[in-house]
Backbone:
């Protein structure tokens, strides 16, 4: 917990300076809200924001888990088949150059206005760093450990289960942590392309009404959600990789 | 390096699992690390290979173990020349202990048993009694990071024995230890306690006392015939003693 103090103190100081500057310059709230205006929006619109948050959390969590599952499956397939790796990996890289913002409307047309297109957008945004890191991790097992396994009746599957997979866990979690920070943005893109609820929808509605404080409040919640997901993934990492030296955890 | 090493390190046992290297050549990075090595070890024989660092001792061992194929000549273990056949017959203890950091000492030792499909609980039950014999009692649940260098090597040694193969290849098994620990380890030798059914123990090592004969790897001639000592690895039925 002691580690948390320096960033918290800095954050508090920045918020204080922000409040002072906006007040001193007499900037109207609809142009640039003070932190206190954001706070009162958080409290005043708690019902609206709460409902929207639940919708978005669902999209983030399900979409993220979907991404992890698909990414690990693809990574294992790529790991076992060099031919597939050569064929599919470049296509995966190309797929990442398609901007998700543009993909979302097409998915909305294709899949409707329910939760499905949002899940797909979240998954598309999240799965790539997990796949890349997992493939790298699985492929970078210590060759001496693999040779040791071969002399101990270790077949291909045993080597995968007992050497490659546990050895790849740190890399897989690196990817999963990066992906966790993308998930919230993915959900908002999905909602912007077509929705009637969620934090992205709240932002979309608040913009023409110049409810800037509400937008800021929604953004604040979104980043808190991303932070929570990141913390949960880090916690899972710590539980699943107990042999990893503590110093590695950020 | 023209050379011939022949050892009559013990009587041929029924299974006849011996090691035969015939004109073995191995080229690594454009350099002929092994150049026409001949070596015969009869079943139940124990041979120590002595040589300077870089002389090719480990290279020879991994060829015999079936991990690599020679670039010239032939290697057979118990008559098997295919790498898969040699792998099936040889247990190799690598120079580095190669313990898996995510497994406890006990699960590391039982690795080979799990690899052949034995349920984990049963594999542990079989490995557990051996810990006390090697002075490792109480450290079964520790991960390798918590073990000392000597303990790690003992666990790696146990793991090699539990592979239960007729040929044991020990690549400087206790080389990383200080002299005192090494002596202790050789004293508490699991070999006396009939831990393995290994019939052929072959180790490039400086501990000549454990070998019935030693060969110098640098010039490939027998150095000295050493008395058979504590390294008696009697033939036992599979797992009967464990």
Residues:
């Amino acid at each position: 917990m002691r580690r948390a103090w320096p960033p918290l103190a800095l954050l508090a100081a920045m918020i204080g300076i922000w409040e002072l500057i906006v007040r001193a310059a007499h900037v109207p709230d609809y142009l640039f809200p003070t932190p206190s205006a954001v706070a009162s929006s958080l409290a005043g619109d708690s019902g609206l924001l709460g409902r929207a948050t639940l919708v978005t959390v669902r999209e983030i969590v399900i979409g993220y888990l979907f991404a992890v599952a698909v990414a690990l499956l693809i990574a294992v397939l790529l790991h076992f088949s060099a031919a597939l790796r050569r064929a599919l990996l470049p296509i995966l890289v190309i797929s990442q150059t398609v901007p998700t913002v543009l993909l979302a409307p097409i998915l909305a047309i294709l899949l409707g206005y329910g939760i499905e297109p949002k899940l797909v957008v979240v998954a598309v945004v999240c799965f790539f760093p997990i796949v890349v890191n997992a493939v790298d991790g699985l492929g970078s097992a210590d060759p001496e450990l693999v040779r040791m396994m071969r002399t101990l009746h270790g077949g291909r599957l045993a080597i995968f289960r007992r050497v490659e997979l546990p050895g790849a866990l740190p890399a897989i979690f690196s990817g999963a942590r990066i992906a966790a920070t993308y998930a919230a943005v993915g959900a908002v893109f999905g909602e912007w392309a077509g929705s009637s609820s969620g934090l992205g929808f709240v932002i979309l509605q608040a913009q023409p009404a110049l409810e800037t404080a509400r937008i800021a409040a929604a953004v604040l919640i979104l980043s808190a959600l991303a932070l929570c997901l990141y913390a949960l993934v880090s916690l899972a990492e710590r539980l699943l990789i107990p042999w990893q030296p503590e110093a590695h955890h950020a | 390096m023209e050379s011939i090493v022949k050892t009559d390190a013990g009587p041929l046992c029924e299974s006849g699992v011996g090691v035969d290297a015939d004109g073995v050549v191995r080229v690594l990075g454009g350099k002929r690390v092994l150049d026409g090595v001949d070596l015969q070890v009869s079943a139940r024989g124990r041979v120590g290979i002595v040589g300077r660092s870089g002389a090719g001792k480990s290279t020879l061992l991994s060829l015999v173990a079936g991990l690599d194929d020679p670039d010239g000549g032939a290697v057979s273990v118990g008559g098997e020349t295919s790498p898969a056949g040699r792998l099936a017959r040889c247990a190799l203890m690598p120079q580095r202990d190669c313990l898996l950091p995510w497994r406890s000492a006990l699960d590391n030792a039982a690795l080979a048993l799990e690899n052949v499909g034995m349920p984990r609980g049963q594999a542990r039950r079989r490995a557990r009694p051996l810990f006390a014999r090697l002075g490792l009692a109480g450290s079964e649940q520790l991960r390798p990071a918590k073990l000392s260098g000597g303990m790690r090597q003992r666990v790696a040694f146990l793991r090699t024995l539990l592979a239960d193969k007729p040929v044991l290849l020990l690549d400087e098994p206790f080389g990383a230890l200080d002299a005192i620990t090494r002596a202790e380890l050789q004293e508490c030798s699991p070999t006396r306690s009939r831990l393995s059914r290994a019939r052929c123990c072959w180790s490039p090592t400086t501990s000549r006392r454990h070998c019935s004969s030693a060969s110098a790897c640098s010039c490939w001639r027998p150095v000295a015939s050493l008395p058979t000592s504590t390294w008696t690895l009697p033939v036992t039925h599979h797992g009967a003693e464990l």
User: Anything to note?
Assistant: DSSP finds ten helices and no strands in chain A. Chain A touches chain B at residues 142, 144-145, 147-155, 158, 162-163, 166-167, 241, 243, 245 (CB under 8 Å). Residues 54-241 of chain A form a domain with the MetI-like fold fold (CATH 1.10.3720.10). Residues 138 and 168 of chain A are 5 Å apart (CA to CA).
